[in-house]
């Protein structure tokens, strides 16, 4: 899962790129060749203002630590996922990189490519470890060993165009249940408005629907049983019902034409251009829809509303259960000590509060949440604060093998190419093959 992606941001001389044509070659600014220690930082952030903030933080750190050069490297989201496994085993491995936690991070840790951060974070009475929200560390800890530094938390929710809702006669406050949501979709279509911007080309954006429906129907115990291959696994009735509800949504044709080929930047741009009424997306959607819109301005902040994924009547899950990220920075085994020192600096309460103040993150650093001033991001922060169960993205938590099948099945079910039971069986088969 991902942070929102778009076209690569304009780069200052210090930001490097990983060009697709160049394969694994990392391009660095030769002007920094004389630095005593180079720290290579691989990210996939595309909002220019956010990258600029990171550059400023890095520059401040460099000014206080002579001989250290922090070099930012960029990869687009899908290229990041495709190239990272090979990159981690190469001489060009970054010293730290963006992580979604969950099963993917666990698998990376088992290859020996990552540095075990437990001793470093628990030194001096655990001061570094205790500087984060305990929940933020959970997705990065396996068998009581820590493999990434927390950066931010987030939750997936619906964002909507207030003008299109008004034009279509839909009120967001009336959308409390899944049936209410389907009614809103029908009402918008009848008004000639595309209800939802959908990103089927990248697949993972559509797995949010299936995942949330599984959570709302089954609750935490059903998902945990399926994840651990207990009982009926992913063939449990509540999970089958979730797929049936997703198929019901698909039959309404709620997405834009050609949605099965639309990547995530295009999907954000569609919403930002006012061509769809809703998008199920990340907490920083206000910024990313703007960055990916045709005019670079997108929807005005005051024209964007937000509401949580609706409840399912009769379901075991609560409306206060949340799906989203626990994102951080994984450190590679050969990273220099300066990489750890910089990460501690980058994610301290002061810097996380600064990033939160511009709507960039919901901070993982304890005490930094007061920096969240953007109303839409603050709504996500408040929802997380009241969460009764926060679940990492399914495609990350279940590991790469099962996660890919979850994404594939979600697209197949919503597009009517596969039944709910067929999709559940495909996921269960993948789980049993692990």
TrEMBL record:
Cellular localisation: Periplasm
Record-given protein name: Extracellular solute-binding protein
Similarity-based family: Belongs to the bacterial solute-binding protein 1 family.
Main location per the UniProt record: periplasm
Record InterPro entries: Bact_solute-bd_prot1 (IPR050490), SBP (IPR006059)
A GO-annotated cellular component: periplasmic space
Phylogenetic classification of the source organism: Bacteria, Pseudomonadati, Pseudomonadota, Alphaproteobacteria, Hyphomicrobiales
Signal peptide annotation: 1-35
Keywords for this protein: Periplasm, Signal
Pfam families registered for this protein in UniProt: SBP_bac_1 (PF01547)
């Amino acid at each position: 899962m991902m942070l929102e992606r778009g076209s690569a941001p304009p780069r200052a001389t210090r930001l490097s790129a990983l060009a697709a044509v160049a394969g694994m070659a990392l391009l660095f600014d030769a002007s920094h060749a004389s630095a005593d220690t180079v720290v290579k930082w691989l990210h996939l952030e595309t909002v220019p203002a956010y990258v600029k903030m990171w550059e400023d933080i890095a520059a401040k750190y460099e000014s206080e630590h002579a001989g250290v050069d922090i070099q930012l490297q960029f990869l687009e989201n899908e290229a990041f996922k495709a190239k990272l496994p090979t990159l981690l085993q190469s001489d060009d491995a970054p010293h730290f990189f963006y992580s979604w936690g969950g099963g993917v991070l666990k698998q990376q840790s088992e290859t020996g490519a990552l540095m075990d951060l437990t001793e470093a974070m628990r030194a001096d009475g655990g001061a570094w470890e205790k500087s984060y929200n305990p929940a933020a560390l959970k997705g990065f800890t396996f068998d009581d060993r820590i493999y990434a530094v927390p950066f931010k938390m987030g939750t997936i929710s619906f964002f909507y165009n207030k003008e299109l809702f008004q034009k279509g006669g839909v009120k967001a406050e009336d959308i409390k249940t899944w049936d209410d949501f389907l009614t809103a979709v029908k009402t918008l279509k009848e008004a000639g408005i595309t209800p939802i911007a959908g990103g089927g080309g990248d697949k993972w954006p559509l797995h949010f629907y299936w995942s949330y429906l599984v959570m709302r129907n089954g609750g935490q115990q059903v998902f945990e049983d399926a994840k651990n291959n207990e009982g009926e696994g992913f063939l449990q009735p509540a999970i089958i019902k979730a797929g049936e509800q997703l198929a019901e949504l698909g039959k309404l044709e709620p997405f834009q034409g050609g949605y099965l080929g639309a990547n995530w930047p295009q999907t954000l741009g569609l919403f930002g251009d006012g061509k769809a009424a809703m998008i199920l997306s990340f907490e920083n959607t206000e910024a990313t829809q703007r960055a990916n819109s045709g005019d670079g301005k997108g929807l005005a902040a005051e024209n964007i509303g937000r509401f949580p994924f609706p409840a399912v009547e009769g379901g075991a899950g609560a409306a206060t259960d949340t799906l989203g990220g626990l994102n951080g920075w994984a450190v590679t085994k050969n990273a220099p000590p300066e990489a750890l020192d910089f990460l501690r600096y980058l994610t301290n309460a002061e810097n996380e509060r600064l990033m939160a103040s511009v709507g960039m993150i919901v901070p993982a650093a304890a005490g930094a949440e007061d920096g969240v001033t953007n109303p839409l991001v603050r709504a996500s922060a408040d929802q997380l604060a009241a969460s009764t169960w926060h679940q990492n993205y399914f495609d990350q938590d279940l590991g790469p093998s099962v996660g890919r099948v979850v994404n594939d099945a979600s697209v197949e079910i919503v597009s009517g190419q596969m039944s709910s039971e067929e999709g559940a069986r495909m996921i269960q088969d993948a789980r049993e093959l692990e």
